[in-house]
Amino acid sequence: GQILCFVGAPGVGKTSLGKSIARALGRNFVRISLGGIRDEAEIRGHRRTYIGSMPGKIIQSMKKAGTINPVMLLDEIDKMSMDFRGDPSSAMLEVLDSEQNNTFNDHYLEIDYDLSQVMFITTANVRYNIPLPLQDRMEIIELSGYLDFEKSEIAKRHIIPKQLKAHGLDNKNVIIEDAAIKKIITEYTREAGVRNLERELASVCRKIARDIVVKESRNGKAGEKTNFKVDEKKVEEYLKIPRFRKHKHINENQVGSVTGLAWTSVGGEILDVDVTIMNGSERFMLTGQLGDVMKESAQAALSYIRSNAKKLGLNPNFYKDKEIHIHLPEGAIPKDGPSAGITMAMALLSAVSGKPASNKVAMTGEITLRGYVLPIGGLNEKLLAAKRNEIHTILIPKDNEIDLQEIQELVKKDLEIIPIQKIEDAIPYVFSNFSTKNKVTKKKSASLKKVVK
Fold it and tell me: Which residue out of 89, 339, 358, 445 is catalytically annotated?
């Protein structure tokens, strides 16, 4: 049958999903960890002439399963390496090919073994580390990171009951408030999965257990049983100072400062772009540890503003004897990708025109020299980042409008999502009274507007 490959960040539940599939099918489950394997014999087995020879991991797992049709999970398939002893990923080609694996040959057995009834599931963190011929044999399913409200539900339904039972608190009246769970998620963890969340909740449970023991047995005498409530104050008392500070959005309109949206492996973030223009030799500076793609986006934004200066009602020689400096704060964090193109273009327009940009609008989109806004990825996480920072108007590329159908209503609620096709379409939303040669108004953009409330 079809061979599945779950690709996703650590802690999103790839292995658990494999176990659930086996349980749902009523089949035996075996797991093989492929992380660090660099010897082909680990897969195909050793020839019996060698001292200490044994079958490969596939045949050993079949013996362990005790059936001909188990669910076999090949964990961390992207972590296999190779050396002078052979390439194990090449040996996996036969195992994971449904046309060939009915005659899998293990060097130890020296006879063909039928693997065609086995359901293979593989997991990986990074798709690009899997060799292409191996990718071709599998159906790759991307598992995205959890959003904050999803983590909150996982904590309430699964993690907290499990940890209360593990710490002997399931028969005590322990209540962990929703606000306390949210505080742990946003201020004490920064991840796509829920492993660190489980660790922090386990730490809270240990401290609750200590407090209950102290409270219920003063001076060796058993005290009365009481309800134990954990709120935000208690979380800070138990886990000390928050490890991650929330990025605070500046609530004032500023010249040359525009809010963008960024995707990271642990979710979405807002991205401030600051532009300043000063006297000096004609130079264009980019700071904030930007990658090559982002630098090219900044160059494209500047070229667009310069070539369309007249149309935008700007002085065509605005760059003469001027230094233009674009900076993205949080310089210690590397940033890359093309989706900040529209944000940089609007920040440059604000700095050149001297008009303040609205702080109540966030945007994302790649741009071309002709002024078109191209589609981007990670829309779900970006919308959530805007919502977290109480920004309710979001400009997205027109081609991403179709992706809104797959985003949950809970994420889109109270957001005004405006698809734009060209850079000029964004101007009426970012600037309150910006006059251009070819007047662009919100009325013109109204046909593109999609309000989700």
Answer: 339
Neighbours of 423 (CB within 10 A): 25
- The predicted pLDDT at position 268 comes to 77
Report if residue 244 sits inside a domain.
Answer: no
For the beta carbon of residue 287, count every other beta carbon within 10 angstroms: 12
- Domains contained in the chain, number: 3
User: Which of 382, 387, 398, 412 is the catalytic position?
Assistant: 382
350 is catalytic: no
Find the domain containing 155 and state its range: 148-239
91-100 CB burial, b ≥16 within 10 A, e <16? bbbbbbbeee
Q: Are residues 232 and 264 in the same domain?
A: no
User: Is residue 339 a part of any domain in this protein?
Assistant: yes
- Mean pLDDT value across the chain: 86
pLDDT for 447 equals: 39
DSSP strand pairing (373-374 vs 112-113)? unpaired
**Could you tell me if residue 266 is inside a domain?**
yes
- Which residue ranges in the chain fall short of pLDDT 50? 443-453
346 and 286 together in one domain: yes
Give the 3-state secondary structure of residue 230: strand
> Among residues 239, 270, 302, which one ends one of the domains?
239
* pLDDT (0 to 100) of residue 424: 92
User: How far apart are the C-alpha atoms of 274 and 343, rounded to whole Å?
Assistant: 10
420/271 same-domain check: yes
The residues near 409 (Cβ < 8 Å, ≥ 6 apart) are none
> For the domain that residue 193 is a member of, what is the CATH number?
1.10.8.60
Distance of CA 356 to the CA centre of its chain: 32
Crossing angle of helices 195-216 and 232-239, in 10° steps, is 100
The pLDDT tens digits of the residues spanning 115-149 come to 889 999 999 988 888 888 888 889 999 887 787 88
Instruction: Say if residue 232 is in the same domain as residue 273.
Output: no
Q: Is-above-0.85 flag for pTM?
A: no
**Which of 87, 114, 143 delimits the end of a domain?**
143
Structure-block tokens of residue 279:
């006297």
Strand partners, 6: 123, 141
Cα 82 from Cα 362, distance rounded (Å) = 46
Distance, CA of 405 to chain centre: 19
Q: Evaluate whether 184 touches 197 at the Cβ level (below 8 Å).
A: yes
Give catalytic status of residue 382 as yes or no: yes
In angstroms, rounded to a whole number, what is the distance separating the alpha carbons of residues 279 and 451? 42
